[in-house]
Amino acid sequence: MSRRRLLGTVGAAGATGLALGAAGGVGVYAAASGPDSGSGSSPALTTVGSTEAMFHGKHQAGITTPLQSRGHLIAFDLAPGAGRKEAAALLRRWSATAADLMAGRAPATDTGIARDAGPSSLTVTFGFGRTFFDRTGLTARRPAELDPLPPFSSDALDPKRSEGDLWVQIGADDALVAFHALRALQKDAGPAAKVRWQMNGFNRSPGATARPMTARNLMGQVDGTNNPKRTDPDFDRRIFVPSGGPQPWMAGGSYAVVRRIRMLLDDWEQLSLAKQEQVIGRRKSDGAPLTGGTETTPLDLDKFGPDGKLVIPDNAHARISAPEQNGGAAMLRRPFSFHDGIAPDGTPDAGLLFVCWQADPLKGFVPVQRKLDRGDALSPFLRHEASGLFAVPGGPAKGEYVGQRLLES
């Protein structure tokens, strides 16, 4: 019996939840019903469990899916001696388990962790790191886009929590459903792969606010306003790998840059509200530019104040990261916040599990981060502690497993 069946009769409320779950989103919950969508209200919490994401399709789930309230990022290394054959068997197992869980079906050896829950928008996304291709004898099919990211001055990277042969992103609108998937996939790995690192994240739950809103990060800032939208005419070109490229197995896929970014919250919170807004270039209350308007009003980067200074300072985060300041470079940001306790010095070990998606990281993440690295006013309050770059192939067709076109071609 599916977990969804155990919910009982959902009725009209459940139908509303399913409609919202099927809506195309781009990186924030508000993308499905945000300030520019015209939607009127959040789903009631009782409908959250009924939403279902599709495992099969042109693209993998978890890329354009609206932000989920709970997430796990986990990287694996293939075991010594494991190669292409073992990797194919692992991806076949993982794909079967992910398809069941995303549909609300319990695996044969289910632990019962999420027995009473529906699918809760569960998504499971799989990617390959640079070293995966060496370990499987597929170096000739490694995309050039997986070349190592350049170093940045704000990097304080822990190699033990960076990169990996295989990467899995799990997201759901229920913490137990997300953990259930994490546990099932870890068990499925068996002797073929071992965990390299694992990180846990969260976002605001759908229905927790009086109206749908763009997410806030742990600094209290509205985060995700300028994300590309599925309605943008160039969205697919910027985010997804087209057909006909040098690596056909990546058609419909994307590249994920993953960064664990520690926020120095004690230092940030010492700043006055006015200074915080100058650092970001937006109002903290509603995310609107300092030059006026609403959250979605374009930045007026040429506006000067009565004091003769730029209203949005030249080193403000919003200015430096704006696509028009970076030759149109854009990436789809889909992060999770994290809090891993209190450090020995008494500061919170908290921040952002930054995940961004693009058709080519050399045209998305890298140019923007290089520019931020040279003079972003936010940089003194951030520390990049882990990093990874992964090739995420297109979604599997019915009867396929993720990565089959690479591993069996």
TrEMBL record:
It is found in: Cell envelope. It comes from the Bacteria. Its EC number is 1.11.1.-. It is an enzyme of class 1 (oxidoreductase). Its cofactor is heme b. Residues 214-395 form the Dyp-type peroxidase C-terminal domain. Residues 284-305 are annotated as: Disordered. Binds 1 heme b (iron(II)-protoporphyrin IX) group non-covalently per subunit. Residues 60-203 form the Dyp-type peroxidase N-terminal domain. Belongs to the DyP-type peroxidase family. This is Deferrochelatase. It comes from Streptomyces solicathayae.
